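User: I'm writing a short report section on ligand binding and want a predicted complex to refer to. Could you take this sequence and tetrahydrodeoxyuridine and write out the structure as C-alpha coordinates? A short remark afterwards would be nice.
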Amino acid sequence: MSKKIKIEAEFEELGWDELTIEEQQLMMRARKVSEKAYAPYSDFHVGAAVRLESGEILQSSNQENVSFPVGVCAERLVLGYAGANFPDLAVKQIAIVARRKGEEIWAGVSPCGLCRQTINEMEMRFNRPINILIQNPDGSVLRFPGIQTLLPFKFDDLNA
Ligand code: THU
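Assistant: Sure. The C-alpha coordinates for the complex follow:
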Protein backbone atom coordinates (compact mmCIF):
# COMPACT_ATOMS: atom_id res chain seq x y z
CA MET A 1 0.00 0.00 0.00
CA SER A 2 1.40 3.38 -0.91
CA LYS A 3 2.01 5.94 1.79
CA LYS A 4 2.40 9.68 1.42
CA ILE A 5 5.23 11.11 3.48
CA LYS A 6 5.56 14.82 4.02
CA ILE A 7 8.79 16.61 4.85
CA GLU A 8 8.53 20.03 6.44
CA ALA A 9 11.26 22.63 6.77
CA GLU A 10 11.17 25.50 9.22
CA PHE A 11 13.45 28.51 8.98
CA GLU A 12 13.40 32.19 9.87
CA GLU A 13 13.53 35.45 7.95
CA LEU A 14 15.10 38.19 10.04
CA GLY A 15 15.83 41.87 9.77
CA TRP A 16 19.46 42.92 10.29
CA ASP A 17 18.68 44.16 13.80
CA GLU A 18 17.20 40.82 14.74
CA LEU A 19 20.50 39.03 14.18
CA THR A 20 22.84 38.55 17.12
CA ILE A 21 26.03 40.62 17.15
CA GLU A 22 27.95 37.41 16.37
CA GLU A 23 25.75 36.78 13.36
CA GLN A 24 26.11 40.36 12.13
CA GLN A 25 29.90 40.02 12.38
CA LEU A 26 29.83 36.79 10.41
CA MET A 27 27.63 38.32 7.70
CA MET A 28 29.99 41.28 7.44
CA ARG A 29 32.96 38.96 6.98
CA ALA A 30 31.13 37.07 4.24
CA ARG A 31 30.25 40.35 2.53
CA LYS A 32 33.82 41.57 2.70
CA VAL A 33 35.39 38.41 1.34
CA SER A 34 32.91 38.27 -1.56
CA GLU A 35 34.90 41.21 -2.96
CA LYS A 36 37.81 38.82 -3.42
CA ALA A 37 35.93 36.34 -5.57
CA TYR A 38 37.64 35.04 -8.68
CA ALA A 39 34.58 34.68 -10.87
CA PRO A 40 35.45 35.88 -14.38
CA TYR A 41 33.08 33.36 -16.01
CA SER A 42 29.92 33.92 -14.01
CA ASP A 43 30.51 37.41 -12.57
CA PHE A 44 28.73 35.98 -9.52
CA HIS A 45 30.75 36.92 -6.45
CA VAL A 46 30.09 34.74 -3.44
CA GLY A 47 31.39 35.09 0.11
CA ALA A 48 31.11 32.50 2.86
CA ALA A 49 32.27 32.88 6.46
CA VAL A 50 32.23 30.28 9.22
CA ARG A 51 32.51 30.67 12.95
CA LEU A 52 34.33 27.89 14.76
CA GLU A 53 33.37 26.85 18.27
CA SER A 54 36.47 28.73 19.44
CA GLY A 55 34.88 31.93 18.14
CA GLU A 56 37.41 32.31 15.32
CA ILE A 57 36.02 33.31 11.94
CA LEU A 58 37.32 31.93 8.62
CA GLN A 59 36.14 33.07 5.21
CA SER A 60 36.43 32.36 1.50
CA SER A 61 35.13 33.54 -1.84
CA ASN A 62 34.36 31.36 -4.86
CA GLN A 63 37.25 30.49 -7.16
CA GLU A 64 36.41 29.63 -10.76
CA ASN A 65 38.31 27.89 -13.55
CA VAL A 66 38.23 28.06 -17.34
CA SER A 67 37.32 24.39 -17.12
CA PHE A 68 34.04 25.25 -15.38
CA PRO A 69 33.53 22.17 -13.16
CA VAL A 70 36.95 22.73 -11.62
CA GLY A 71 35.74 25.97 -10.00
CA VAL A 72 34.90 25.73 -6.32
CA CYS A 73 32.12 27.41 -4.36
CA ALA A 74 32.91 29.73 -1.45
CA GLU A 75 31.19 27.42 1.05
CA ARG A 76 33.21 24.35 0.13
CA LEU A 77 36.46 26.27 0.18
CA VAL A 78 35.91 27.70 3.63
CA LEU A 79 34.62 24.42 5.06
CA GLY A 80 37.58 22.55 3.56
CA TYR A 81 39.95 25.08 5.08
CA ALA A 82 38.25 24.76 8.47
CA GLY A 83 38.46 20.98 8.40
CA ALA A 84 42.05 20.94 7.17
CA ASN A 85 43.42 23.49 9.63
CA PHE A 86 41.17 23.12 12.66
CA PRO A 87 40.36 19.41 12.66
CA ASP A 88 39.31 19.44 16.31
CA LEU A 89 36.98 22.42 16.21
CA ALA A 90 33.34 22.26 15.24
CA VAL A 91 31.80 24.83 12.92
CA LYS A 92 28.92 26.67 14.62
CA GLN A 93 27.63 28.93 11.88
CA ILE A 94 28.06 29.69 8.20
CA ALA A 95 27.05 32.94 6.50
CA ILE A 96 26.58 33.08 2.72
CA VAL A 97 26.21 36.16 0.52
CA ALA A 98 26.48 36.85 -3.21
CA ARG A 99 26.58 39.83 -5.50
CA ARG A 100 26.75 40.18 -9.27
CA LYS A 101 29.76 42.10 -10.49
CA GLY A 102 29.06 45.82 -10.66
CA GLU A 103 25.77 45.64 -8.75
CA GLU A 104 25.03 47.29 -5.44
CA ILE A 105 22.28 45.02 -4.20
CA TRP A 106 22.90 41.53 -2.90
CA ALA A 107 21.89 38.68 -5.15
CA GLY A 108 19.66 35.84 -4.11
CA VAL A 109 21.77 32.79 -3.30
CA SER A 110 21.31 29.35 -1.84
CA PRO A 111 24.03 26.73 -1.45
CA CYS A 112 24.30 24.19 -4.27
CA GLY A 113 23.81 20.47 -3.71
CA LEU A 114 27.53 19.76 -3.34
CA CYS A 115 27.87 22.45 -0.70
CA ARG A 116 24.82 21.19 1.18
CA GLN A 117 26.35 17.72 1.29
CA THR A 118 29.60 19.28 2.51
CA ILE A 119 27.81 21.17 5.28
CA ASN A 120 26.15 17.89 6.21
CA GLU A 121 29.52 16.17 6.49
CA MET A 122 30.79 18.87 8.83
CA GLU A 123 27.70 18.49 10.99
CA MET A 124 28.23 14.73 11.16
CA ARG A 125 31.94 15.11 11.85
CA PHE A 126 31.29 17.04 15.05
CA ASN A 127 27.77 15.83 15.74
CA ARG A 128 26.55 19.39 15.89
CA PRO A 129 24.13 21.32 13.67
CA ILE A 130 25.47 24.33 11.78
CA ASN A 131 23.32 27.45 11.68
CA ILE A 132 23.12 28.69 8.10
CA LEU A 133 22.61 32.39 7.39
CA ILE A 134 21.79 33.57 3.89
CA GLN A 135 21.61 37.16 2.69
CA ASN A 136 18.40 38.08 0.87
CA PRO A 137 18.35 40.80 -1.80
CA ASP A 138 15.84 42.86 0.22
CA GLY A 139 18.29 43.10 3.12
CA SER A 140 16.67 40.44 5.27
CA VAL A 141 18.57 37.33 6.29
CA LEU A 142 17.39 33.73 6.30
CA ARG A 143 18.42 31.59 9.26
CA PHE A 144 18.30 27.81 8.91
CA PRO A 145 18.87 25.80 12.08
CA GLY A 146 20.91 23.13 10.31
CA ILE A 147 21.38 21.32 7.02
CA GLN A 148 18.34 19.09 7.51
CA THR A 149 16.02 21.92 6.50
CA LEU A 150 18.00 22.53 3.28
CA LEU A 151 18.77 18.91 2.49
CA PRO A 152 15.99 16.65 3.69
CA PHE A 153 16.30 12.92 3.03
CA LYS A 154 20.05 13.29 2.67
CA PHE A 155 22.62 10.56 2.24
CA ASP A 156 24.32 10.29 5.60
CA ASP A 157 24.73 6.62 6.42
CA LEU A 158 26.76 4.12 4.39
CA ASN A 159 25.33 1.23 6.38
CA ALA A 160 21.67 2.15 6.64
N1 THU B 1 28.58 29.65 -6.05
C1 THU B 1 29.07 29.65 -4.78
O1 THU B 1 30.26 29.89 -4.54
N2 THU B 1 28.20 29.38 -3.78
C2 THU B 1 26.86 29.25 -3.94
O2 THU B 1 26.14 29.06 -2.95
C3 THU B 1 26.26 29.32 -5.27
C4 THU B 1 27.21 29.34 -6.39
C5 THU B 1 29.49 30.00 -7.14
C6 THU B 1 29.88 28.91 -8.08
C7 THU B 1 30.26 29.71 -9.31
O3 THU B 1 31.58 30.20 -9.15
C8 THU B 1 29.32 30.91 -9.27
O4 THU B 1 28.89 31.01 -7.93
C9 THU B 1 28.13 30.80 -10.20
O5 THU B 1 27.48 29.61 -10.02
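A remark for your report: Residues 12-147 form a domain with the Cytidine Deaminase; domain 2 fold (CATH 3.40.140.10). The chain has a mean pLDDT of 97.
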